[in-house]
């Protein structure tokens, strides 16, 4: 393993704003670049500040993907979070296909809004 190798991590919502009509997919929740090999995201450069998923409707798929960079500081902040494309971004900056990925489902907590009966 090389200390010169760097990775980039993204966290995206594939179902924004709702799973039936994901017009904002992929919604970018977090991006960290220049993560040195053998370390974690806390050692990288946060390009897009973490934003917690808060789905209003349905069950959302949230994906973490780790992509290999060719060199440090070769990636720049995307202009918007909405309609982000991990695949297009990787092609533009010559990143690898994901070398690791994880996902989880999340949904709105019960009782966090809606009608209130007195």
TrEMBL record:
Designated name of the protein: Protein HEADING DATE 3B
Family matches, as CDD domains: PEBP_euk
InterPro entries named in the record: PEBP (IPR008914), PEBP-like_sf (IPR036610), PEBP_euk (IPR035810)
Lineage, broadest ranks: Eukaryota, Viridiplantae, Streptophyta, Embryophyta, Tracheophyta
Alphabetical list of SUPFAM superfamilies matching this protein: PEBP-like (SSF49777)
Species whose genome carries this gene: Dendrobium catenatum
Pfam families per record: PBP
